[in-house]
Structures are given as C-alpha cells and as structure tokens.
Amino acid sequence: MQYRKGWWLFAIAMLTAGCVSKKKWEAEMLNREQCETQRQQVESAYAEALDEIEKLRLDLREERGAVRALEGVVRDRNQRVEALLQQIERMKDELAAQRKMMDLTLQRQLEAIAEKEAAIDALRQEIAARNARLQQLASELRDSLQAAGIPAEVILAAGEAIVRLPAEAVFPEREARPSAEGLDAVQRLGEVLRQYPRFLVRVEVHHDNQPVRSRRWSDSWAFTHERALVLARLLADEVGIPPNKIIPAGRGEYLPLASNETEEGRARNRRIELHLWLEQDDVIARIRALAGEE
Q1: What are 155's strand-pairing partners?
Q2: pTM of the prediction?
Q3: Which residues is 294 bridged to in the sheet?
C-alpha cells in the first residue's frame, strides 16, 4: 500500500511539473503495472516454493524415520543371520562329531562281524571235521558188522551218526540174551568204539507192536529196555567201554520206521540203533553265543 501511494504521488508530481510527456507517462505506467504483475507472480511462486519446501521437509522427516526403522529391521535381520550362521557352525561341529562316532561304531561293528565270520568259519571247519569223524566211525562200525554178515546202515542227522541193524542179528526172537552171533557182533562194535574214546553212544532197542507174551515183561517197552540194558552192560563189562559213555534206552514200539501191518514192516521196526556223538560238544553253545543268545 505504501508502494502504491508513493507511485501515485510520483505520478502527480510528474504531471504537475510537466517534465514527462503523456506518452512516456503511459509507457511508464504500463511498465509499472507489468512489474507489479511480475512481483505478484514472484511472491506467489515464492509462497508456493515455501510450501513445497515445507512439504519436502515433512517428507524428508518421514523418510528419515522410515530409514531408521529399516536400519533397525536390517540390524535385527543381520543379528538373526549371524545367530543362524553360528547355529550352522555348531551343527556342523555336532555333525562332524556324530560322523566320527558313527565311523568308529561302524569300524567296531565291522571288526566284530569279521571276528564272528572268522569264528563261524572255524565252527564250519570244526563241524565238517566232526561230521567226517562221525562218518568215519559209523562207516567202520557198519563195515565191521557187514564183515560178519550182519546187514547194517548208517545215517547222519542232527550232529550224530546212527548205526542201525536188525534186532535178530543180536538177539533170538523174544529173548533178552544175545546169541553167540550177537555176542560176536557186540564184540566187533566195541572194538571199533574203543578207538573213539571221545564219543558217547546211546543204545536204543526198538520193537514192533506185537505183544511180547511173557511174565518177565509187561509190554514191549519193558522188553526193549532190558535188551538195551543187556547191550550196555556187555559193552561196558566185556568190551571195556566206560559206563559213563553208554546210555541204554528201550523205545518199545513207539518209534516205528515202517507200518506194522506187514511182516516186512514189523521186521524193519525190530531194530537196534547206536546213536553216536562227541562228548562235551560245545558247538551249539558257541553258535548261540555268536547269535547273541543266552
């Protein structure tokens, strides 16, 4: 307002003084108006610039807050990453320790397996040697009987050898005392058995299902038991086999090999069996030990 007032005073003075022509005055007035317009535009632009600056300051303040928040997030995440890296390193160490322990355990297991395999091989060799000795003993017993004209057969089963011969080759029918030929057969058996002192022998006598018909025996069980006991005593007393290596067993009619419906079947069932095996045989116990059994 003071500026405009001064302007009008200047204009009046100029007119009064008559120093400026009307055309110059109009030009000056137009220039003044243009200057005023430009001034107003500059003031408006300046005000807008101030508003924009204030807005930018606010935006900058907000962005700085966002940056600080983001820096906090980054810092937290870096801490988490560092913690995870440390955890990974611990896990690597634990894994390495576990792998070392597993390798050691595996090595021990492999060594134990190797030891068991060696023990198993030794057992196989021992079993093979034992079976060979059983086969040899049984074959010699069979050959000795066959040399005397007595039919005999050899069976290998369940770690023992079985020499089987007809009961009539030793005992007369329905008798519990050996015949002369039977005594000779027992003597032959004993001579072979004495060469194998580590073997035990179970003397089994079997019969058919026909009644014995005697006051001495109530049934075939008692009859075969007496026959087995007689054979055991002959082997001990006449041949010299230690009694603690002989087991007499009368089996009666209860383990037939053939049907008792025919004479041939009954004759096959009337038999003597010598079951032979090594005394103090710890093979089964050693196999159970290898298998982890009690």
Answers
A1: 162
A2: 0.59
A3: none
Element spanning 165, H or E:
strand 160-166
Mean pLDDT value across residues 45-60 = 87
Per-residue burial over 136-158, b if 16 or more Cβ lie within 10 Å, else e, is: ebbebbbebbeeeebebebeeee
Residue 121 has pLDDT above 60, yes or no: yes
**23 pLDDT higher than 90:** no
For the chain, the domains span 134-286
Look up tokens 């870096």; give the residue.
78
The residue among 149, 157, 152 whose CA lies nearest residue 140 is: 152
Question: Distance between CA atoms of 268 and 256, rounded to whole angstroms?
Answer: 8
CB 260 within 8 A of CB 209: yes
Beta bridge partners of 203: 248, 274
- pLDDT, average across residues 76-101: 88
**Higher-scoring residue by pLDDT: 112, 271:** 271
What does residue 33 show for φ and ψ, rounded to 5 degrees? -65, -40
The answer to whether 230 touches 217, Cβ cutoff 8 Å, is no
Architecture of domain 134-286 in this structure: 2-Layer Sandwich (3.30)
